[in-house]
Amino acid sequence: MFKSVQDVIEQLGDQDYICDKKIATVVFLAQQLGKPVLIEGPAGVGKTELAKVVSKALGRSMIRLQCYEGLDEAKALYEWEYSKQLLYTQILKDKVAETLAGTQTLAEAAERVGAQDSVFFSSRFIVPRPLMQAITSEKPVLLLVDEVDKSDPEFEAFLLEVLSDFQVTIPEIGTIVARSQPLVFLTSNDAREMSDALKRRCLHLWIDYPSEELEVRILDRKVPNIDKRLAEEVVGLMNRIRALDLKKTPSISETLDWARALLALNAEELEDQIVSDTLNVILKYEGDVEKAQNELAKLIKKKTAEVSAAQPQVAPAPEPGAVKKGILH
Amino acid sequence: MQKKVIAFTNLLRKSGIRVSVAEGIDAFNALDELSLDDREIFRDALRSAMVKRGDDIATYDELFELFWSGFYDNLRQAFDQMEGDLGSMGIDLDQLLKQLAEMMQEMDGDLDLSELAKALLTQDLSQLENMIRQAAEEAGTGRIENMLQVGFFSRRTTEQLGLEGASQELENLVERMRAMGMGDAQIQQLQELMRKLMETVRRTVRGFTERELQQQNHNYMEKFRREMLTEKSFYHLTEDEITRMREVVARLAQRIKNILSIRKKRLKRGKLDLHQTLRRNMARGGIPFEVVYKTRRKDRPKLVILCDVSSSVANVSRFMLQFMYSLQEAFTKIRCYVFVAELGEVTSVFQDKDISQAIEKALDGGDVINVYTRSNFGFAFHEFWKNHLASVDKKTTVMILGDARNNYNDAKAWCIRDIQNKAKNVVWLNPESPSAWGFGDSVMDRYMPYCDIVEECRNLRQLSRVVDQIIL
Hints:
The structure holds 2 protein chains of 2 kinds. By secondary structure, chain A is of the alpha/beta class. Chain A is built from 16 helices and 9 strands. Chain A has helices at 5-14, 21-33, 47-58, 73-76, 82-91, 93-100, 106-115, 117-120, 130-136, 153-165, 196-201, 212-222, 228-243, 252-264, 272-282, 286-310, and strands at 37-40, 62-66, 78-80, 126-128, 142-146, 167-170, 174-177, 183-188, 203-206. The longest helix of chain A is centred in the last third of the chain and has 25 residues, at 286-310. Chain B contains 19 helices and 8 strands. Classes of the chains: A alpha/beta, B alpha/beta. The interface between A and B is large, with 37 and 38 residues.
């Protein structure tokens, strides 16, 4: 249990997830109010990760439902295990014959078989899917409905029903009520707008790209060997790149990848060459890389101009290479 | 507090953010769980419960600042300033008030002061804040619409507040102090204090009224902006509006894509797919527990766009191209031609990643045609008929965008007739209103018989309706 907003920040911090008050407030409220949280934001800012660390921090096991186009109840809630039913009927053939022994008419036989209905339509033959698992679990769990925007609108309506009552009705068996209420996180990449009805039932959390200061802390935590100054340079440049009009804006996961790549290359600071060589780690489209490179060229030019302006002609010439070396300092 | 949150909720609603009653209740529940000392937490808690759309967050933050940047703080400031002013005159406010309080205690039950006067003398600012808010509400300050009314509503508020009465009471109080033998110098100080108090209250009330105006104005502006953009004629757009319009177009396109995906789904159920059914049920000895149906796919249309890019219709062309670009997936192939008199193909627009630049380039003639001539529709259509008719087939929708102002040239309507014979349908979007069609040098009436759909398309709403018609 989280005791306060501050407590959330600390406990998630213990799990190597650095978050701000905004995120912590919503997580805390979700726990207190028992409401689902709809997390939206650009890809790669740690939406799924948040659910994972919360489950760890709370000591709840996490059940994940990955959404995709065409996902239906059978895949999300429960399914009858036909082959098992079939197998059982085969094995129990003799028993069936026994049951039917002595019946005179077809109608009577059907009646007897009918009386045994519940044997074949019992929870024994149900394959519980994530939603069902989350509801029937003895211990409270954390249910992560990932990329809910990828699912079809019909599925969304169905999901709503489950999330509002936490109960499931199976026609052959009856209504199954949740033994414990799961904590529900839904993530969305904004591929389509979710219905108002769903939004109304959820607390809403918008995770955006982190502030520079926060991102440096995240880098520091996730890439332990990184030099503080390099981290700052990386984050600074990252923010400039994000400001460009790109097809796919790089997010935190790209920052981390990049920092790791730089470490692997033993880079101590962001030199022009190394930056342009590793740009494809953070940018996934050729057009984007091109744009970023243009921007970098501009930056370098500006830097050079600044440095030469700061050093009057009479001063001894700077060491070769020092002028154009770093981009950001 | 409750009242204030409700008032804030109403403000959000007025600004176009949809907040349901259930969400309002959620907000209250959320506030129960938190300590309200931290302003950030307070803001985020309210937001997570009430604002569910990414687009609205900026508006919310702005309104939050406006609404909760405590009027109390303003009040505090004003009173601090008053204390400073008095101090520079050599009057120690605390001392004076203490003295006053002592003397008032002596008078005890004999004293009959209004709530307002009491609040002023004890410097109970939160009480004062509540009173001013209430008075403003009774004065109807929420209805304020423009700058000229600030004076009027401020006066009404001070009247409701009973400031005159309180002022009288305070003067009487000073008189009584004099009667009780207070020194002249001190009486003068007291009088100065009372005068300052009145002045400060008047000023803060005015400030409050101005804030209210700001809030109202904000609502008004925001709504105005949103509604107008879709209705606004493409002919009169400022640079800034063009930028914003791009976003709106992108959002509209997204909406249509969503609808498309649903439509596709509905079309899916076809006949029984025997092969798939058998395969899927192999594990059960071929007994068909799970039945698979064939999916029927709706043919995606091909699209040929003929765009007039003469300056008179450039804006319409711009947004239509952007619209079509965003909806590329809805078509198997898009070919795009621009013309003024000559005709040139700029299909590359739709392969380019940087949409806005590509469109600007295409509108500029795309290096293939001369845009600085006079429109000649007949000539352009004839060129299309000569060189590109092969790109039109039975699955093709031909979309023509232009005002059909032909500068008295030959209309060559038979070209359109031939195109129509080959195409699935011909759609003509005309940014002029129908009453102008066929008058002056407009030859719209000549082309109309050969078009399947002719629509006026002057603003975004009309444009999106046309697009709906074509692809759904």
